[in-house]
Design a protein that fits this description.
It is a single chain. By secondary structure, the chain is of the alpha+beta class. The chain has a single domain, classed as Winged helix-like DNA-binding domain superfamily/Winged helix DNA-binding domain (Arc Repressor Mutant, subunit A). It is about 65% helix and about 15% strand. It has helices at about 1-20, 25-35, 40-45, 50-65, 85-95; strands at about 40, 65-70, 75-80. A three-stranded antiparallel beta sheet has the order 1-3-2.
């Protein structure tokens, strides 16, 4: 029984992770971060969006452990959490291009 509960928990967590990828703004932010580290101002400029919207989406991405943030001076610099994020995006892109 324990094994089934663990699997169910994993599937729920996986579904929650994929929900994070279900927003085009978050995908655009992740895609932007694939080019390298960025602060909020840079992401805002790259995506031509307001800072409040970007900050809100970055918080969600950070909670989902898809991005990390570290302080540099007065600003926070964001980057992809690991290579898995790049792989997920690349595989999704490859899938839709088939």
């Amino acid at each position: 029984m324990k094994k089934k509960e663990n699997m169910e928990t994993e599937l729920i967590e996986l579904a929650e992770l994929f929900k994070v990828f279900g927003d085009s703004t978050r995908i655009r932010i992740l895609y932007d971060l694939m080019q390298g580290e960025r602060n909020v101002t840079e992401i805002t400029e790259d995506l031509a969006m307001n800072q409040s919207a970007i900050s809100h989406q970055l918080k969600i991405l950070k909670m989902a452990k898809l991005v990390t943030a570290q302080r540099e001076g007065k600003s926070m610099v964001y980057s992809l959490a690991d290579e898995h994020v790049k792989t997920i995006i690349a595989m999704g892109k490859e899938h839709i291009e088939e």
